[in-house]
UniProtKB/TrEMBL annotation:
<dbReference type="InterPro" id="IPR011009">
    <property type="entry name" value="Kinase-like_dom_sf"/>
</dbReference>
<keyword id="KW-0812">Transmembrane</keyword>
<keyword id="KW-1133">Transmembrane helix</keyword>
<dbReference type="GO" id="GO:0080090">
    <property type="term" value="P:regulation of primary metabolic process"/>
</dbReference>
<keyword id="KW-0808">Transferase</keyword>
<dbReference type="InterPro" id="IPR008271">
    <property type="entry name" value="Ser/Thr_kinase_AS"/>
</dbReference>
<feature type="region of interest" description="Disordered">
    <location>
        <begin position="304"/>
        <end position="329"/>
    </location>
</feature>
<protein>
    <recommendedName>
        <fullName>non-specific serine/threonine protein kinase</fullName>
        <ecNumber>2.7.11.1</ecNumber>
    </recommendedName>
</protein>
<feature type="transmembrane region" description="Helical">
    <location>
        <begin position="359"/>
        <end position="377"/>
    </location>
</feature>
<feature type="domain" description="Protein kinase">
    <location>
        <begin position="38"/>
        <end position="308"/>
    </location>
</feature>
<keyword id="KW-0723">Serine/threonine-protein kinase</keyword>
<keyword id="KW-0547">Nucleotide-binding</keyword>
<feature type="compositionally biased region" description="Polar residues">
    <location>
        <begin position="318"/>
        <end position="329"/>
    </location>
</feature>
<dbReference type="GO" id="GO:0004674">
    <property type="term" value="F:protein serine/threonine kinase activity"/>
</dbReference>
<keyword id="KW-0067">ATP-binding</keyword>
<keyword id="KW-0418">Kinase</keyword>
<feature type="region of interest" description="Disordered">
    <location>
        <begin position="383"/>
        <end position="404"/>
    </location>
</feature>
């Protein structure tokens, strides 16, 4: 809800007359009215949750943005508690790149309100629409936003809704504009989505920029904002949201949970592989794999984006298929909801899908196990080739002869971490297999509950085993309506079957 400012564009609603009501969203106070001493001068934005006004401060010679909640929400006990809690969190932030919260209260009519800094200018989304967003400008803007995020994260505050529409650009030249991050109204303390102990886990996010762990209702920290900042930079560089081809909120949520990060180079020919790598790290599904700080991410992006031209992104015109948030409205009920609109939901409802995400990627298991077998085979051959020539042995017996232990025991020592002693057992092997083991649950976070590792005798055997596994696999629709592999009933397929049922 980028509502703390209004564009300076001549003829716009904010520059001239008040924004007309939209749907059920109506202005609660007329121009000239007093709200707890603030005199209303202009309507900046209207929405289903309330209205944002430009108002004259009752004691200081300045104008503030006054966000006033609707009467119904102001009377709702749970919403009142959440509104006060989140306003208090946001008010503790004092940074030049963060819109300041000045005061909060309740009007005589029973409306909750927040007074905040008014920023005259535009926002990053609007700058893209008018064709003035260059790569250099985008990098500079997200670098400023990164300063605000790192400051908030150091104070255990997560923004939760980083997006171009919440990045305000104060009036000035593009290379000297003041960048401010707004709408910390949905900010929460890091940890979980419900820190208050009142059982309220509802969170308002913009799904197109939401991190997987936010969607899944898992523990959240500042790295969720880094993911959103990565989505924001992707949008500002390419003119598209990361998963813009997704149709509907369910498909979009699944894309964030399961699809690999998109590549900038697929949209900008001048983009380097290095920039793709940087973006992939920022948009990693696992927070542990992302950058440690927002500024670390933007510094890496700046270094990798030097090859980009100064031209605007290729798709900045407003299209029906690429809807964007209107900076003058708040969750309007009249327009068709697009994937870029803010939504409120209880993330726990999607938690099961996040848990079942390994099922979605079982097709990749075939390739992973084949690669593991190849790596192990290559590693053994490599180690044997470095030994003195008189100690060498034929490839097919290298592992057995170069160690005092039988082949399965030597294979176990080469496996990834997370398999305690006794977890893996030897399997019967065919003539083209040196060793094979079946392992129980891996104790590392996210590790498989069951797996099979095979050491092929040579590259040809490895390729044949992989091809055979793929040929015996077929697709099935597994609950809840997702695709997963089904294998023919052989010894190997039983191992995959155990994994597929976890």
């Amino acid at each position: 809800m980028s509502s703390e400012r209004a564009p300076d564009t001549p003829g716009s609603a904010a520059a001239g007359q008040a924004t007309p009501p939209v749907g059920d969203a109506v202005s609660m106070f007329a121009v000239g009215s007093l709200v707890s001493g603030y005199r209303i001068e202009q309507v900046l934005a209207t929405g289903a949750t309330g209205t944002v006004y430009l108002a004259k401060n009752p004691t200081l010679p300045r104008r503030d943005a006054l966000k006033v909640l609707s009467a119904d929400l102001s009377r709702d006990p749970a919403f009142r508690k959440r509104f006060v809690r989140e306003a208090d969190i946001a008010s503790l932030l004092d940074h030049p790149n963060i819109v300041s919260i000045y005061n909060r209260g309740e009007s005589d009519e029973g409306h909750l309100w927040i007074a905040m800094q008014y920023v005259a200018g535009t926002d990053a989304e609007a700058a893209m629409q008018d064709g003035t967003m260059t790569a250099a400008r985008a990098i500079r803007i997200v670098s400023e936003v990164a300063k605000a995020l790192d400051y908030a994260h150091q104070r255990n505050v997560v923004h939760h809704d980083v997006k171009p529409g919440n990045v305000l650009l104060a009036a000035g030249l593009p290379d000297d504009e003041h960048v401010m991050l707004s709408d910390f109204g949905v900010a929460r303390a890091a940890g979980s989505l419900s820190d208050s102990g009142d059982g309220d886990s509802t969170v308002a996010v913009t799904l197109a920029y939401a991190a997987p762990e936010v969607i899944a209702g898992e523990a959240v920290d500042g790295r969720a904002d880094i993911y959103s900042l990565g989505c924001t930079l992707f949008r500002m560089l390419t003119g598209k949201q990361p998963f813009y081809t997704a149709e509907g909120t369910t498909e979009l949520a699944r894309a964030h949970l399961n699809q690999p990060p998109p590549r900038i180079s697929d949209h900008l020919s001048a983009a380097t592989r290095q920039l793709d790598v940087v973006m992939a790290r920022a948009l990693a599904k696992n927070p542990e794999e992302r950058f440690a700080s927002a500024r670390e991410f933007t510094a890496a992006a700046a270094a990798a984006a030097t090859s980009l031209t100064e031209s605007p992104p290729p798709s900045t015109a407003r299209k029906a298929t690429q809807a964007t948030t209107n900076p003058l409205r708040l969750n309007t009920s009249e327009r068709i909801r697009s994937i870029s609109d803010s939504i409120s939901f209880t993330p726990a409802s999607l938690r099961r899908r996040r848990i079942e995400r390994p099922v979605l990627i079982l097709w990749a298991v075939f390739a992973v196990l084949a690669v593991i077998a190849g790596v192990l085979w290559t590693k053994v051959i490599s180690s044997s080739s470095s030994e003195p020539e008189n100690n060498s042995a034929p490839t097919s017996t290298t592992m057995a002869t170069s160690s005092a232990a039988p082949a399965p025991s030597a294979l176990v020592r080469l496996l990834p971490a997370g398999y305690p002693r006794g977890t893996c057992a030897a399997l019967p092997t065919a003539s083209d297999v040196t060793a094979a083991v079946s392992c129980g649950p891996n104790t590392d976070p996210g590790g498989p509950t069951a797996s099979t590792y095979t050491l092929s005798r040579d590259q040809t055997s490895l390729n044949e085993a992989f091809t055979d596994t793929v040929n015996r696999a077929s697709a099935a629709i597994c609950p809840p309506n997702i695709q997963c592999p089904v294998l023919c009933p052989t010894g190997v397929s039983k191992q995959f079957g155990e994994w597929g049922r976890r």
